Amino acid sequence: MxxxxxxxxxxxxxxxxxxxxxxxxxxxxxxxxxASTPGADPGGPPAGPAAAGSCPATVMSTLRTVxxxxxxxxxxxxxxxxxxxxxxxSAALRSAxxxxxxxxxxxxxxxxxxxxxMTALLVRDAAGRQLAAGGVPSLTPVRGTIKGAxxxxxxxxxxxxWSYEGFVAEGDGxxxxxxxxxxxxxxxxxxxxxxxxxxxxxxSVTSGGGSYRFTTLQASEFPSxxxxxxxxxxxxxxxxxxxxxxxEDTVVNxxxxxxxxxxxxxxxxxxxxxxxxxxxxATLLHAVAAGDAPATRRAIERLLNQHIVRMRxxxxxxxxxxxxxxxxxxxVVAPLRLGGRQIGRVVLSIQDDEGYLRLARRxxxxxxxxxxxxxxxxxxxxxxxxxxxASVPGSGRYVYRGRTFRVVxxxxxxxxxxxxxxxxxxxxxxx
Length: 431
Fold this sequence. Notes:
This protein is of the alpha+beta class.
């Protein structure tokens, strides 16, 4: 484990790894390490599951596909679109470029980075001269132009929405393992301590008596576009329980773990941060203590501005207010206290049905059907003609309009209580 993890990054990684009991320990700092390339894993681009011929290779190939999807979001996604839109609509940046005021450009860049929509930003004038740059070490630069009055090009920019630390933190959790980012033989980010010298595209690493499998994907450095390599490691012992009778079964087992992890994370550490925020909100607490329903509603509406999608607050007299979306999942219940005594309770969620659907599709390319109250289909990413719960098997094969899927069922919780059945559909073949 590299000692350079920041406190914030460490909290994120530990929160994710807490959900992954049994998934393997981290590489030990200072331990001797060596890499090998099994005969089933030739150097070069990772083989697909069918070609790899072994369970570990199939698991790592599947995780590589998932992480490639996540990495590609740095080039084309809602995140990059939002970042580019923020730049295009920055009147301060446009005015500074039109005036040729470098100090004002630098100030505008600082404000744009503070928006949180991008991790790094570089701005040039129309002649290509760099005027300002800022942010943290990042991946996958995206280029765009800045227009002035009449549509005239007055400058250009490079942005990134994937910092090293952000990508490693998300990848660590989704892969249920560890990531490292390298430029050549130099490790730039990540907790995994890799052996010195060149490494193959995939293979195994032995460290401190522990065995790890790894695969790689190619990345580009911000702002130069220079090639980087992202190493994805997973403890060999954590792979065994994913092995199926066929490569397809192994792929399904691996992606089932990813789908379950996405759901569990919605009631995990990120949710409890919001619970604590709610429990310390004086305006809400005093409204609940007074039994003031309108004031409670106003306090909830104000609290919904940071990730929370629905809140339901009660006191001894009953329900005071319930504010948020209609179809919400993974509720967390917590007491509300004032002056050392319990005055009520809150039920809250940070994710709705649409949010889970988008995460499953974005992170892993999975389709989702959600059923509440037994047979009511409340979310459908397949299309028209999908039947009731009984028409879609809980596991096994399912064919929709000529497309074949393998089904995984997550027995989830609806808001504020009660079952929510999620049918996760894995496309076969998975790519």
